[in-house]
UniProtKB/TrEMBL annotation, chain A:
Transmembrane segments: 21-46, 52-78, 131-152
Organism: Persicirhabdus sediminis
Protein name: Uncharacterized protein
Domain of life: Bacteria
Region of interest (Disordered), ranges: 238-271, 301-446
Start-end of Basic and acidic residues biased regions: 367-377, 436-446
Biased composition (Gly residues): 349-358
Bias-annotated ranges (Low complexity): 245-265, 411-421
Keywords: Membrane, Transmembrane, Transmembrane helix
Transmembrane found in the keyword field: yes
TrEMBL record, chain B:
Pfam families per the UniProt record, alphabetical: AAA_3, AAA_lid_2
Every AAA+ ATPase domain range: 43-186
Name of the protein in its database record: MoxR family ATPase
One Gene Ontology molecular-function label: ATP hydrolysis activity
Signal sequence segment: none
Cited PANTHER family: MAGNESIUM-CHELATASE SUBUNIT CHLD, MOXR FAMILY PROTEIN
Gene3D superfamilies assigned: Magnesium chelatase subunit I, C-Terminal domain, P-loop containing nucleotide triphosphate hydrolases
Tree of life domain: Bacteria
Length: 446, 335
């Protein structure tokens, strides 16, 4: 083989390899892409099902390489029948270079091999998009399947534990029950409500509405217990006053009345006091508390106080409910954090002292420097004069006005003896509408 | 099969080039036509020349025959021409006291027959040419008479003369190797003609090639190598002229016959020899495609309405049919 022949054969060989490689890639690209996507989906599924499973990079690379090798072999077998021969490459060269089939006849030995041109143009070029896009998509999906964070599959409902709040409610309920201060129907009601929450599907246990209901149940139970405790404390205090004011009938009567109020409040409350205890607390003397002696009153007071303390013991501590402090304040001993007045329960005051209602001053419980009183200037409410800028139909103010209703009651009567002059017709707008409405209606009819 | 040697080819090329130059000295401005006529002759084919009157068709044929030193005859076809007027007739003669029919050969018995305005002859007369052109022999009253070799028919026809003409039947058209369009001359050629010619004066033409030399060249043409890939290309090209085989063929009513494929192969070989090569190539086939296929493709009515002619269709076919029947993968594209 001479130089020219080998040069041409080399050129034809390069072209042959290029074309055959392109055929192989064409056979590989689509199946490889589909396999890569399928493989990625499988990996994601496996990772989601087994969150604890860690796939090492070596194994991952090994899997991907193995898959690629299998596909490559299959693609080679499929593409092989389309492979081009060297002879065909020579023909391709001579037709593109306009050699008048010189290579073919040279290969037959009929003529000399032509001289290789100094610059052989590239006959075929790679279609980069067709090569890069499938490769990129396959690589990206495969890498993403290993690297993307995957949330674990939802656990079985059997693995779900009930909210801790429910066990807290049950515990609290047991503690209150154990004091034997409150009566049973209340506990049964709470238990029924708790049972209703339990009967929800487990997937709904931690819903916002379910948790809110549970929290409300707990707060209500504590509130009711505190109310009962408050009534018991108040009653004990009144009994103490009655004992101290034994020789002062007026004060004793006032204390007795206050005591009755406390009793009524206990009866009204949702958490009813135990009937036996109530009878016991009401005292042996049925003629009234005023008939009791000082010692009897004191004994009664101790019983009530004991009941209140038992209830207090069953309830959570200071961090459980801020209302404990409020009720203590309601007894008249402490200052209200909001307005600073003694005896204020903090609910009815109009604010101040930087409390919830945002009055002036600094709340005692806040850290830091107290707000100085001399920094407060004259305060006057803001007034807005909208009348100059109002448009027809704008609502400028509202006020509470009692409608001018007819005071005459309706009574059945026969039509001939009707004493009612009627409420319809122009009496509607004359007598029963608000002034603005009267004016509007009058303008309409005019 | 023994293929032509390089030395033989070189020698033949020189003679052909000499003939070509000689013809170009007599016929001005028709270089391509002259090339194709010589190609047709070397391919042992008959040629149909179509062109307006006065373009030098007859002059070309007469010059060619004189240059080759071959006998030539001219027949002016007219509607009243009889077949016997061309082929020859048996004449009753008395020889040695006995009367017998003696065949008198007609003008067909020559090396180069110039059939002027062949489309003016009646179909009967035209069909008398069929056997002669194909078989190179004539049968008269059961007796076959061979025509002299080489035998060529160079026919002419006038494209604008429609009245009183009989278009050549497809069967006869198919026997012509080439149909060549003789185009009118440009200004510079006309000037040259005016300067060097006189009306009514025939140019002097010398013979530049003997009959034996021509026969040797004709034999050499048959020894030109036709590669398989070129044969494959010819086959695909001819096949593509049939409806349904290519996009361009949607306008073709009837495609080319296998005789067209043989004609293409011969013409390609002849052209290869004229270019000094010992092998035919794709380019040779492409160069001869128009001349070979132009008169063998019958267009349908839609093509005529769209204004498509045979040459445009052949251009489309050449564009559509690649040299090589190997697909290129989609991941590669031509540069």
């Amino acid at each position: 083989m001479n130089d020219r022949e080998s040069a041409w054969n080399q050129l034809a060989g390069r072209l042959q390899r290029k074309i055959n490689l392109a055929w192989w890639w064409q056979s590989l690209a689509a199946p490889w892409l589909i396999s890569a996507i399928t493989f990625s989906i499988i990996i994601l599924f496996v990772r989601q099902s087994n969150p604890a499973l860690i796939i090492s990079p070596t194994i991952a690379i090994g899997l991907v390489l193995g898959l690629f090798i299998i596909h490559s072999l299959a693609a080679y077998l499929i593409a092989k029948k389309r492979f081009i021969s060297r002879q065909e490459c020579l023909v391709k060269l001579e037709s593109n270079l306009e050699l008048d089939n010189a290579l073919t006849s040279a290969q037959m030995g009929l003529r000399d091999w032509p001289i290789l041109p100094s610059a052989v143009p590239q006959l075929l070029r790679w279609n980069k998009l067709r090569i890069l896009i499938p490769s990129a998509v396959a690589i990206i999906t495969t890498c993403a399947s290993f690297a993307l964070p995957v949330s674990a599959k939802e656990t079985n409902e059997s693995d779900i534990n009930e909210p801790r709040l429910w066990s807290q409610i049950e515990t609290q309920l047991e503690e209150i029950k154990a004091t034997q201060v409150a009566e049973d129907p209340y506990f049964t009601n709470i238990e029924e409500q708790l049972e209703k929450l339990r009967q929800q599907p487990k997937s709904d246990w931690f819903n916002h509405s379910s948790l809110e209901a549970s929290d409300h149940l707990k707060q209500q139970m504590l509130s009711d217990a505190n109310e009962l405790k408050k009534s018991l404390s108040s009653g004990a205090n009144q009994l103490q006053r009655m004992a101290e004011a034994k020789n002062q009938p007026a004060q004793q009567k006032a204390a007795a009345d206050a005591m009755q109020q406390a009793l009524q409040q206990m009866r009204k409350g949702k958490m009813q006091a135990n009937q036996d205890l109530l009878k016991q607390l009401q005292g042996e003397n049925q003629n009234g508390l005023q008939q009791l002696s000082k010692e009897q009153l004191e004994k009664l007071k101790e019983q009530w106080q004991q009941a209140a303390q038992d209830m207090q013991g069953a309830l959570p501590g200071d961090d459980g409910d801020w209302k404990d402090q409020q009720w203590e304040a309601a007894d008249g001993d402490q200052e209200c954090d909001g307005c600073g007045k003694k005896g204020c329960d903090g609910e009815s005051c109009e604010g101040g002292r930087g409390g919830v209602n945002r009055g002036p001053g600094t709340n005692k419980k806040l850290l830091g420097k107290e707000h100085q009183a001399d920094e407060q200037g004259n305060r006057s409410p803001l007034k807005s004069d909208l009348s100059a800028r109002s448009l027809p139909g704008d609502l400028l103010e509202t006020s509470e006005i009692d409608h001018d209703k007819s005071a005459k009651p309706f009574s059945p009567s026969s039509s001939q003896q009707s004493q009612n002059s009627g409420e319809g017709g122009d009496r509607v707008w004359r007598d029963s509408l608000m002034p603005d409405e009267q004016k509007a209606l009058k303008n309409f009819f005019e | 099969m023994e293929f032509a040697k390089d030395e033989e080819i070189t020698l033949a090329k020189e003679k052909i080039d000499h003939l070509t130059r000689h013809l170009q000295q007599v016929i001005f401005g028709q270089e391509e036509l002259i090339q194709l006529v010589i190609t047709g002759l070397l391919a042992r084919g008959h040629i149909l020349l179509e062109g307006l009157p006065g373009l030098g068709k007859t002059e070309l044929v007469k010059t060619l025959s004189k240059s080759l030193g071959l006998g030539s005859k001219r027949v002016q076809f007219t509607p009243d021409l009889l077949p016997g007027d061309i082929t020859g007739n048996p004449i009753l003669q008395e020889i040695n006291g006995q009367r017998e029919f003696i065949f008198q050969p007609g003008p067909l018995f020559t090396n180069i027959l110039l059939a002027d305005e062949i489309n003016r002859a009646s179909p009967k007369t035209q069909s008398a040419m069929l056997e002669a052109m194909q078989e190179r022999c004539v049968t008269v009253i059961g007796e076959t008479h061979s025509l002299p070799l080489p035998f060529f028919v160079l026919a002419t026809q006038n494209p604008i003369d429609l009245e009183g003409t009989y278009p050549l039947p497809e069967a006869q058209l198919d026997r012509f190797l080439f149909k060549l369009q003789v185009s009118r001359n440009d200004v510079s050629t006309l000037e040259q003609i005016v300067n060097k010619r006189e009306l009514g004066q025939e140019p002097e033409v010398n013979s530049v090639m003997t009959e034996d030399e021509l026969n040797d060249i004709l034999k050499l043409v048959r020894q030109i190598y036709l590669p398989d890939v070129v044969a494959n290309y010819i086959a695909r090209l001819v096949d593509s002229t049939h409806r349904g085989q290519s996009k361009a063929a949607s306008h073709i009513k009837f495609g080319a016959s296998p005789r067209a494929a043989l004609s293409l192969a011969s013409a390609a070989k002849a052209r290869a020899l004229m270019h000094g090569r010992n092998n035919a190539s794709f380019e040779d086939v492409k160069a001869c495609a128009h001349a070979v296929l132009r008169h063998r493709i019958i267009l349908d009515y839609n093509a005529k309405i769209e204004g498509l002619d045979n040459d445009q269709l052949i251009d489309q076919l050449l564009e559509e049919v690649p040299f090589q029947d190997t697909a290129v993968p989609a991941t590669l594209s031509a540069s």
